[in-house]
Records
---
Amino acid sequence: MKITVVGAGAVGASCAEYIAIKNFASEVVLLDIKEGLAEGKAMDLMQTASLNGFDTKITGVTNDYSKTAKSDICVITSGVPRKPGMTREELIDVNSGIVKAVTSSLVEHSPNAILIVVSNPMDTMAYLTHKSTKLPRNRIIGMGGALDSARFKYRLAEALGAPISDVDGMVMGMHSDTGMIPLTRLATRNSVPVSSFLSLERLEKVMEDTKVGGATLTKLLGTSAWYAPGAAVSGMVQAIACDQKKMFPCSVMLDGEYGLSDLCIGVPAILGRNGIEKVVEIELTDAEKSKMETSAEAIRKVNGLL
Ligand SMILES: NC(=O)c1ccc[n+]([C@@H]2O[C@H](COP(=O)([O-])OP(=O)(O)OC[C@H]3O[C@@H](n4cnc5c(N)ncnc54)[C@H](O)[C@@H]3O)[C@@H](O)[C@H]2O)c1
């Protein structure tokens, strides 16, 4: 199992680290355009191998795609992160050029790879990847919902005063401050609806804190977060590499599901060796459907800027 991670910045390096620590891949190639950065991060990470007990071989390369050849899975984190006060959508001009060039080089050297798109604005970058590579839809997956759901569970556990392992919940929709849809109706503490424990007002606050989860961290850190994004990607990579058939909310090119088509938006999907094995359609309430439509509209608007 060979995995390439493009972009050896904060998210890419964190992702490579979590993949290595989970010890399921034979090889991770980190690639960056900045001379020496990927080589340095790969060497630093390899020097944690004896300490953390993994055998995954991590190599770093500066823009040399021949070293990524025959990768099974490629993760795209190259591009600019947002600064405090910025929206993800404001990154489109710079990142669309980077993502288009990077995916073209990746596909040239790894024609059978499954691509996981992380760069923002992620739903639009996943859409761009579909349009520019024309790969089947099961092989292009956007990462956003896995991270947003982890943030949702963090906020739910905080509100409940419960350990996070007691909590389950999912976020659908656009990966943006306004477009994401934390599904409080379906969230549970050990199978009991969270509405049994939390007032409507408290649930509203959980929802709002989840939606601005990324912006809150960007304000604190001066750049966007990396640990949880890296962990979210590594979970998806593992589900594909180990054919786990796990369900994650991912940005998927829809073809009529949820009444939507020709856009990538966060919906639950089963991930396995073929990438997206199945898009899961869950019954939504009218209010949730209307939020999905608003979210889809917002994505189409950003896609229109490509
Ligand atoms: N989808 C999500 O949930 C999510 C979460 C966090 C961050 N992000 C996005 O991921 C991206 C990376 O964030 P980061 O914090 O790691 O940024 P970063 O600046 O730390 O790293 C980005 C790296 O990409 C490299 N790069 C730029 N152009 C390149 C090219 N053409 N080829 C190869 N490498 C190139 C840069 O040299 C840099 O090292 C941003 O767009 C950010 O908004 C998405």
---
Amino acid sequence: MYGIPTDGATVKALDKQHVFHSWSAQALIDPLPIASAEGSYFTDYDGKRYLDFSSQLVNVNIGYQHPKLVAAIQEQAARLCTIQPSFANDARSEAARLIAEIAPGDLNRVFFTNGGAEATENALRMARLHTGRFKVFAAHRSYHGATAGAIAMTGEPRRWASEPGLPGVVRYFGPYLYRSAFYASTPEEESERALAHLRDLITFEGPKTVAAIILETVVGTNGILVPPPGYLAGVRALCDEFGIVMIADEVMAGFGRCGEWFAVDHWDVTPDLITFAKGVNSGYVPLGGVIINDAINETFQQRVYPGGLTYSGHPLGCAAAVASINIFREEGIVEHARALGSDVFGPALAKLAENHPSVGEVRGLGAFWAVELVRDRATREPLVPFNATGPDAAPMGEFAAACKQRGLWPMIAGNRTHVVPPCTVSADEVAEGIAVLDEALDVADKYYTG
Ligand SMILES: Cc1ncc(COP(=O)(O)O)c(C=O)c1O
């Protein structure tokens, strides 16, 4: 390799000098240099191995360095590294065909992007032009990306610094029974009341002004919130009634994460647009996109679609998507993730809740789970306050440190640890990780006051 540093200290020093990191005060962070990775593990320069219960940013669904996926990228690189979007390209055509094949209903076309934010950004643009309306309904508990439109749709605190953003975003509460905005006490009540709330908002905003409702099919970073029965079908019905485009943001929940190709498959609901990224090729090469139904595709048959990207449908990203989808099929990875959810994570995390008073709730499906930590089970006071930083966030920091010390890389989000390893993780690896969580949760229990 030409001039690539081979020791952790140099990597770290250069990072400190020259790299500007996401979502960070640059002087206050201490990025761990990573030397290598394989399967469900990555290794630092001191040779310490971590079992990855985060899949990086919930994107390495296929695990690290899958040999067939690496080979497919190498082959494509040798054949054709790049070609701009207005040409037709075999890797792009085949990736689009495969994605249309696994997508539900008449979602038959793919607009490729470099990642998730550009996907939600373009889905919004399509919905607005298709309907001739401009408002978009987006959930408080959501993340849709960090570009202008995507961050404006995002509900959570990462949006605040980018305000005032795009006009026309209307915020709604989605279902979350454990902390119900609707004083509901059953999943059925939560579903009904969340839908009634959405209907009221549509009525008061003016149905003819609403272009789209965007939702994360299973809310990811903001809690792994699995929708209660009837909710998605109810949103679909509202969209049909009022001519609103339903956008399912499956950037995190799609491509096997929920034990289905797309999370919507779980509830047999067909949105008008699906946004994807991450698991489409596990981020081996950046790729995302929007899957478009026939009606919206029809809008742009004679009319120009006013959007594009130099790297839309990049051959390396698309070749990686083709290989990844084929590997998922050959190795039954979607089915594996589904079985992990019902047979491994479900029971193991329920046991953690039995062992530790600080576990308020465990929830999830497939390889997509949250352990929500509280100071008091009766009041459900979160272990750390909403959007805590610095000393307020210390209990979660201590919990994370306890995991890392024992060789487990957790995904911390607010007062929760999300359990989101690669979808290829084995039952033995899960057991290894759960054993670490079991020990580390003693740290959280120390703060329990209930
Ligand atoms: C649901 C969802 N949508 C969009 C995004 C943005 O994706 P990207 O970071 O690739 O722009 C994310 C990223 O975490 C996400 O989880």
